[in-house]
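retry 2 of 3: previous attempt timed out while embedding S-adenosylmethionine. Reduced batch size to 1 and resubmitted. Inputs unchanged:
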Amino acid sequence: MAGIYIHIPFCKKRCHYCDFHKSLNLKDKGRMVKVLVKEMELENGFLESEQVETIYFGGGTPSVLDYDEIMIIFEGLYKNFKISKDAEITFEANPDDLTKQYLKKLRKTRINRLSIGLQSFSNQDLRLLNRRHKSETGINAVRDSKNAGFKNISIDLIYGIPGMSMETWENNLNIAFQMGINHISAYHLTIEPNTVFSRYIKEGRIKMPEEDTGIEQFRILIKKMGENKFLQYEISNFCLDGFFSKHNTNYWKQVEYLGIGPSAHSYNKEIRRWNIADNKKYMDSISKNKTPFEKEYLDNRKKYNEYILTSLRTMWGIDLKFLEENYSKEAMDYCMGLSKRFIDYGMVVKNMNNLILTDQGKLIADNITSELMM
Ligand SMILES: C[S@@+](CC[C@H](N)C(=O)[O-])C[C@H]1O[C@@H](n2cnc3c(N)ncnc32)[C@H](O)[C@@H]1O
Ligand code: SF4
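retry 2 succeeded.
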């Protein structure tokens, strides 16, 4: 079992919070698509002959691709990899790209899951975030995606936005639940270095909300998700029964994946590698038959840390048996020993062989994770 991630490194506008790799220069799009396929040819041995169960088009903005470009990528994928007949194929899209005509074209491809970046239904928030779309565009995009026949739809929301009131956040969630979608990713705004927001903060033009506000919004999130039968299967990810993202879940379960495109990461249990985050250098290098990446070998300590970092955030938690079988008995004892005080504080519960965060623990998940690392 394996996954493929394809990074589409273009956006039409730069959101003020985002540090994902992208370029606003769309004139290289056609060449990039051909080069992505070339990288697939160069790297088709990376997953050995593992069956590909999930494909994820992320970005940047995959929805800047036109139908022909998407089809060129699919041709490359099916030529170079063994892809399962019922693979989950997710496509990230910005709402204002999802016109009825575009959705009709998307339906003709093998894409069977959409992840739409709505972020908020407040136009004030959307303006502050420098999003391209307005609230109504987001609502229409979901309605039109459903009408086009997409059954598996996820939306992204952000909370902890400067100036966002509790009412706005609750209202955003209420609208989301009325949309008839089956998956929601909800992230607390993080201020990344070298973004417009980090400059605004330094200049005093915006102020992050108090920590208590973020915590209260997270509590509201958990409460309302529960009331609406959405399962919190990872700190920031919620779904109706059975609709969890297989692709992301596989990342957290140490399943191998190949990342195609500039800045994309790959992992095959022994190494982790990441492509150069520069469109021109990436394309020039691939054109000379060399994938430009850096890599690190994962020793037992790194593997253990990665497992803790990814698994503790999920509803399945840390599987102590998995630690023992895949790393060592010492690794399992080490983890169990350090977890004891969090169990005593009611932050973590031990359920059979698994260590799972309680709702209280989820509030300080990052601290607990770093305490459990080697
Ligand atoms: C790779 S981004 C892009 C998807 C698509 N281009 C879009 O903007 O809708 C995936 C998601 O990460 C979230 N995200 C990105 N940067 C963030 C930040 N600094 N804080 C919180 N969420 C962030 C947003 O919700 C975004 O939709
Ligand atoms: S959030 Fe999405 S659209 Fe905005 S800059 Fe980041 S990748 Fe591009």
